[in-house]
Amino acid sequence: MTLKQGKSPIGEPEKAHRSLWVNTWLPRISWGIAALMIAFAVLVLLQVTGVSALAASSGDKFIPADSAKTAPLPDYSTGAAVNALSRISNLSTVISDTSRETAAEYTIESGDSIFAISKSYDVKPETILWANYAILNDNPDLISVGDTLIIPPADGIYIKVKDGDTIDSLAAQYKSTPDKILYFPGNKMDVSNPKLEVGSYVMIPGGSREWQRTWLVPTYWRPSSGANKTITGQCEIADGGAYGSGAFVWPADSHMISGNDFWDGHLGIDIGAGLGANVYAADSGVVVYAGWISGGYGNMVMIDHGNGYHTVYGHLSSIQVRCGQSVYSGNVIGYAGSTGNSTGPHLHFEVRYFGAFINPHYVLP
């Protein structure tokens, strides 16, 4: 067989194979690529739609990434109540005024005491006593309902300037320093040319003075106490009688301090005994005073325990013992009241040792 030049015996099968690939597989591949592109487009669309929906659900608008504004965070609150403690910030915290620059005035009410008032104003009780000597005479029991007291702005001496007073002389007299007076804000002094104006008030921070206790009840002694001390008003007492053990008991059923506690200006404690409550002898001894007495005590009983100790019971509504009587620890000697200078029923109780005042808390159980 003779073959014609330019033709191959396998040309037809190759052409048939190429035609089959083009007609069958190329369309399939094209459709696959198209499907992938459509899926990708759908995915992108879903992402955009989801973010928009999220923004819409929070009540905020969707802000594109290229926007100059900042998108607020969505609110993820479930809307359900939550059982938990909640603290709300107080943007205007109230701070107590502990740095007053000017004096205040306070009107005495029923049940008041210098000790309690001093705590309210964050000053020492002696600061109030010293500023009100004309009314109180250094006696905290002289307060009366309706009295108006000056409350100094700081601890120390608050005084009216007299002719001849200087910053240096006042500082020396009241145991302070000129700088403390000069730089106290309430004194409002011109540091470059400080002057005191006669008739004005000046605060002497940290100042102090001696007490003028003309009102104190003297210590009465029984003859066997070893000292010959006869004072007007003292009971006529024979030698002998009951003696104390030195083991004290509370003079009232209540152990609560209702007014003044023991401090330099108040040499006893005020026990919260109600009107008519029993008052007991704190230890055995002999009554050396029983009756009314000046100085603000009202109805008072004093017991000499014969061992150097004396106890004093003031403001009694009634007295149940007599001068010279022996009493024993726990005996009822009277009833609590509000006689003398007092703003309410209580028991004023003092303990003295050889005439010196000691804190009753040191000997009471």
TrEMBL record:
Keywords: Membrane, Transmembrane, Transmembrane helix. This is Membrane proteins related to metalloendopeptidases. Residues 104-151, 157-204 form the LysM domain. One of its GO terms (molecular function) is metalloendopeptidase activity. CDD domains: LysM, M23_peptidase. SMART domains: LysM. It comes from the Bacteria. It comes from Longilinea arvoryzae. InterPro entries: Cell_wall_metabolism_enzyme, Dup_hybrid_motif, LysM, LysM_dom_sf, M23ase_b-sheet_dom. The lineage of its organism: Bacteria, Bacillati, Chloroflexota, Anaerolineae, Anaerolineales. Signal peptide: none annotated. The chain crosses the membrane at residues 29-55. PROSITE patterns: LYSM (PS51782). Pfam families: LysM, Peptidase_M23.
